[in-house]
Amino acid sequence: MSHISVLLHETVDALLADRNTGIYIDGTFGRGGHTRLLLSKLDTNAQVYAFDKDPQALEVAYQLEKEDPRFKIIHASFADLQQEMNQIGLFEVDGIMADLGVSSPQLDQAERGFSFMRNGPLDMRMDNSQGPTAADWLMSVDEEHLANIIYQYGEERYSRRIAKAIKNAGYITTTAELAEIVKVAHPKWEKNKHAATRTFQAIRIEINKELDDVHAFLPQATDLLKSGGRLAVISFHSLEDRIIKQFIQKESTLAEDDGWGLPQKIKDTRKLKKIDRIRASEAEVKENPRSRSAWLRVAERLEQKGTE
Fold it and tell me: Residue 274: which domain range?
């Protein structure tokens, strides 16, 4: 299955807000769908930078660099956004977008080890040039910590039973082995959902530090935006969406009192204004079922008044 960019036009249109020039960042290049559409709407003076740590995504990005001089790829996680941009002398940009989660090519290639639908080595690393594989991590982690990860990141109620079965199995080398162990250990399957879905999600999130990266990315992105610049982030599960929602809420809310119910003069420290929350349309979900859980949240950078 080729990669279909989710909420493609909605994301790019929200990011640009009727502009056709400026400096923009795609925090998750993937296969470049959002970046290519963005470039097509920008004038010759614009610049687009993208981040990715997946070697296969980088191959696609390097080819785009040759095709379009306005584009530059950075081999790094978007968690290093501010540091990487500052190193090339950029301290302000007009818009930043990110499409979180795993891309279709990553899921569909058995050798990447992301999916229980295709048997392959139990890897799960987005950057498979470094760090422990899922197989190695499962062998080294203790049972209690594994159960906590499956519960927290997979929201799996039978996490302790599943963790025990995984640890009792010894070294697990393939996705099919892991899926079968979880399936046997799981006492109650959800309708229309494989028993291993939540466990695979949890292990993948832990291996790639996905939620840590989102926590690191959001404040850096906000600080890099010019006044009026847009932040547009697509998430695919409730854990990511909750982080984004709470961050935007916190940065767009003005405190009203001192905690004792007494009015006081306070500094306006709000950095963002909520703009929109968008779901994939019925037509998009029909064409690309993976978009059914996607949420796009959009916020705009406020001018820092610095007044009491």
Answer: 8-99+211-301
Q: Flag whether the pTM goes above 0.85.
A: yes
HSE toward the beta carbon, residue 205, CA cutoff 13 A: 24
CB 131 within 8 A of CB 210: no
Domain final residue pick, 208, 233, 263 = 208
Of residues 215, 161, 151, the one with CA closest to residue 183 = 161
Q: Which of 243, 280, 305 is nearest to 10 (CA)?
A: 280
**For residue 173, with 0-12 CB atoms within 10 Å meaning exposed, 13-18 middle and 19 or more buried, which class applies?**
middle
CATH code of the domain in which 166 resides? 1.10.150.170
Q: Bridge-partner residues for 230, per DSSP?
A: 95, 300
pLDDT tens for residues 114-167? 788 889 999 999 888 889 999 999 999 999 999 999 999 999 999 999 999 999
Asked, for residue 2, whether it belongs to a domain, the answer is no
Q: Is residue 306 part of a domain?
A: no
Tell me if 284 sits within 8 A of 291, measured CB to CB.
yes
Length, in residues, of the chain? 308
